[in-house]
Amino acid sequence: MTTALITGATAGIGAAFARRLASDGHSVVLVARDEKRLREQATELHDRHGIEAEVLRADLATEEGIAAVEERLADPTRPVDLLVNNAGFGNKGEYLEVPMADELTMLKVHCEAVLRLTTAAVRGMRDRRRGAVVNVASVAAFVPRGTYGASKAWVVQFTQGAARDLAGSGVRLMALCPGFVRTEFHQRAGMGTDNIPGWLWLDAGKLVDAAMRDLARGKSLSVPDPRYKALVSAVKLAPRGVLGGITSRTGRKYGPR
Ligand SMILES: NC(=O)c1ccc[n+]([C@@H]2O[C@H](COP(=O)([O-])OP(=O)(O)OC[C@H]3O[C@@H](n4cnc5c(N)ncnc54)[C@H](OP(=O)(O)O)[C@@H]3O)[C@@H](O)[C@H]2O)c1
């Protein structure tokens, strides 16, 4: 039996990964901050699919939280075969409106934690000559979009670079770039979503199914859904000045301060 560790497993895309992987028969290690939600989810996955579901409460914005997950990933007696670095969040406001502490927390969760957890997992995977890492980025990685887009661009570049360095090792790495997905993300960030057209929304379960297909095909970059594939292709051709104007408004309508 194989084991998958998923960060940000209590909600949205991470919860969808946990459900999909448990239904495929993987044991799961569920990581997030809300221990009550983690335990409820672990019980449900265990009861429904008969798999082992472990709970690891960790705040990936803290040194202790990252270190605890690193330790679990590096434990040779309980190998992790698939790591999904998914935990993440949005900040409310545009540049200069976001407190510096919140910007730095974002870099800690989206970049430092992803770097350290990937590295802790991949060392053992390389020795065992098998394993995979999915790092959840965003289509925001391809457009000028504040610290959020910049942090996700880092995830894409880091993941594809590491995938290339590890080619032939038996370890696969893939950056997953979703568009808008119906989760708790926008509500938690205090972002209004009524200016996002309905046709742009993705379902978390379908997104995860597409990501798992791309991982099986050996892709290092996954942009699920034809709508977003087309948008990303168009973005690569469009002048950055034009892009900045359009993308800084879409999906960034902030609620009352
Ligand atoms: N939804 C979208 O439209 C969208 C689009 C592109 C990319 N993404 C990316 O997809 C990923 C998942 O987002 P989502 O949409 O599923 O959001 P979500 O529904 O808000 O879920 C976020 C998850 O991350 C966990 N989390 C947040 N901060 C954490 C921290 N400091 N330490 C540990 N866990 C933490 C949360 O659990 P706790 O609160 O229990 O810790 C929760 O399980 C993120 O990386 C996001 O940037 C989302």
TrEMBL record:
Enzyme class: oxidoreductase
MF (Gene Ontology): oxidoreductase activity
SMART domains cross-referenced by the UniProt entry: PKS_KR
SUPFAM superfamilies assigned to the protein according to its UniProt record, in alphabetical order: NAD(P)-binding Rossmann-fold domains
Keywords: Oxidoreductase
Ketoreductase domain residues: 2-179
Entry-linked Gene3D superfamilies: NAD(P)-binding Rossmann-like Domain
Pfam families, per the entry: adh_short
InterPro entries, sorted: KR_dom, NAD(P)-bd_dom_sf, SDR_fam
EC number(s) given by UniProt: 1.-.-.-
PANTHER family referenced in this protein's UniProt entry, alphabetically: DEHYDROGENASE/REDUCTASE SDR FAMILY MEMBER 7B, SHORT-CHAIN DEHYDROGENASE-RELATED
UniProt family annotation: Belongs to the short-chain dehydrogenases/reductases (SDR) family.
Name this polypeptide is given: SDR family NAD(P)-dependent oxidoreductase
